[in-house]
Design brief:
By secondary structure, this protein is α+β, with helices and mostly antiparallel strands. It folds into 3 domains: about 160 residues, FAD/NAD(P)-binding domain (3-Layer(bba) Sandwich), CATH 3.50.50.60; about 110 residues, Polyamine Oxidase, Chain A, domain 2; about 90 residues, no CATH class. The protein is about 30% helix and about 20% strand. The chain is built from 15 helices and 21 strands. β12 and β13 form a beta hairpin. It comes from Steinernema carpocapsae (Entomopathogenic nematode).
Length: about 500
């Protein structure tokens, strides 16, 4: 059995992940292992897809591994589902796309699930109308920090002064590690870009201030502005600037399923995996940590059932897991909620919107932080010769009392104000509320997660995924899928995880 072949805990790839004695001490070589996964979304499906491979590649390792995925819905997908509204328009739960370069393994798996895909050029701009004192919309290239040469002259001069100081004092500034996201922005860009872009946009997306966030999540998510690139852009005249390649993001290629939206990927993948692994309409109501059992209700029959496990993989929000099991004190972590507002429209597409895949909106006068031109992605309208569609994402604090109906009305008015749609084009309006929208990378997040993972993994519970792992920087669909893949490799083959870092201090001796 693979449980015997455990890498030594001193292996360099462990990087603060507990493997070996800490977990595998609970199992005997040759003994069966029952893995129960809460949720059949990308993380759980990544685990299932990989186990299906292991059964073929390493049958002796997987022969005594039993897998069950408990999914409360009647289908797979979770937050990556697609909904069809009453008029026949399809809506994803956010701007879900797949970048080909991130994980070839993920791309291979999703192409196995779905045959027909559209490859698209990522083309997105940022509305900075408030910076110019204008009503309506004023688009600049993405990312906004690269568009400094197009800012109003006084703002441009101030930004350039800030950046020049940082280039000249790079060594001195680099020595100081930023403690917050705000300090990270000040270190790399300066106060002008912080105030003109990062602060308003952070409030829109994260619903917190820049000083409340840790810089640990940033990675490649926020583009830095190299001195050479800035000088190159500043040397261009206004006409040349409008056509310039800003070198980060706009020319990236992404793919999207031709039919059925994002949800089609996960439904199709689940349908091709062993069906005995899946229990749908199974709502988990209790986890007995000491007894190693899960209680769930069959939402169709109403029957309450209990299932034992050797290993529990949780993909539901980790704060709820900790709160319900009382396995340790409650976590000091934060999340926001996101309202999805989809608007189905009669053709034609508004002329200036035709080339775009999505637009960003730091402007506090409209509720959405992003508008996606979803009908460009695939066949997501009742008839693409007659209709097109846009999807708005609007974030609010968890406790914000604003209603879905209010946000929907504000979003429609905002789309009209920005000149993206006209009222008489509207043929369908869809809305839903995602109570868990973004896992916010607060300053205390990493230490709080490490505290929880220490106790959870001591009890053979592994929490992964967008909210199961609570790390935004590794919470896209591809990240979550690979988290599932790497976790089953760890459990069955003893291969360390790389994508997700628990922060748990490893034991150097048995």
């Amino acid at each position: 059995m693979g449980l015997c072949r455990v890498l030594p805990v001193t292996h360099p790839y462990f990087d603060a992940i507990v493997v070996g004695v800490r977990f595998f001490k609970n199992f005997r070589c040759g003994s069966p292992m029952k893995i129960v996964v809460v949720g059949a979304a990308p993380t759980g499906l990544g685990l299932a897809y990989r186990l299906n491979e292991i059964r073929k590649e390493h049958p002796e390792e997987a022969e005594d591994v039993e897998l069950v995925l408990l999914e409360q819905e009647s289908f797979a997908g979770g937050l990556s589902r697609t909904v069809t509204d009453k008029k026949g328009f399809l809506w994803d739960m956010g701007g879900h796309i797949t970048f080909n370069h991130n994980y070839p393994y993920y791309e291979e798996a999703t192409k196995w699930a779905v045959d027909e895909w559209n490859d698209l050029q990522r083309n997105c701009l940022v509305d900075m109308n408030y910076l110019f004192g204008e009503k309506g919309i004023h688009l600049v290239p993405y990312p906004a920090q690269f568009a400094v040469p197009l800012f109003p002259e006084n703002v441009k001069k101030s930004c350039l002064k800030d950046l020049k100081e940082r280039y000249e004092n790079y060594g001195e500034m680099d020595a100081k590690a930023p403690r917050t996201f705000e300090e990270w922005i000040l270190k790399h860009f300066g106060p002008t870009i912080l105030d003109t872009f990062f602060k308003p946009y952070t409030r829109k997306v994260w619903t917190v201030e820049t000083e409340e966030m840790s810089p640990n999540w940033v990675g490649t998510r926020v583009a830095k502005l190299p001195q050479e690139k800035l000088e190159e852009l500043c040397a261009l005249d206004p006409e040349q600037l409008q056509k310039a390649d800003f070198g980060w993001g706009p020319n990236a290629v992404f793919c999207f399923p031709k039919y059925g939206g994002t949800g089609n990927v996960w439904k199709s993948m689940a349908s091709k995996l062993p069906q005995e692994w899946f229990k749908y309409n199974a709502e988990v109501t209790n986890i007995d940590v000491k007894g190693k059992s899960v209680t769930y209700t069959d939402k169709v029959s109403g029957e309450v059932q209990k299932m034992d496990y050797d290993v529990l993989v949780n993909t539901a929000p980790i704060d709820q897991l900790v709160k319900s099991t009382k396995i340790c004190s409650e976590l000091d972590v934060e999340h926001n909620k996101v309202f999805i507002v989809g608007v189905g429209l009669e053709l034609p597409v508004t002329k200036f919107c035709e080339p775009f895949t999505w637009l960003y909106f730091p402007d506090p006068a409209v509720p959405f932080y992003r508008v996606t031109f979803l009908s460009r992605y695939g066949e997501v309208t009742p008839d693409s010769s007659k209709y097109w569609s846009v999807m708005c994402e609007c974030a609010r604090k968890e406790a914000d009392p604003v209603t879905e109906e209010e946000i929907t009305g504000l979003a429609i008015e905002g789309l009209i104000t920005k000149g993206i749609i006209t009222r008489d084009q509207i043929v369908s309006v869809y809305s839903t509320t995602l109570d868990y929208g973004y896992p916010i990378p607060t300053i205390m997040r990493d230490s709080e997660l490490a505290r929880a993972h220490t106790v959870l993994e001591d009890n053979s519970i592994f929490s992964r995924g967008r909210f199961g792992g609570w790390k935004y920087e590794v919470s896209n669909q591809d990240h979550c899928f690979v988290q599932g893949r790497e976790l089953i490799d760890r459990l069955v083959l003893g291969i360390p995880e790389k994508a997700y870092k628990t922060g748990v201090v490893s034991r150097k001796t048995a």
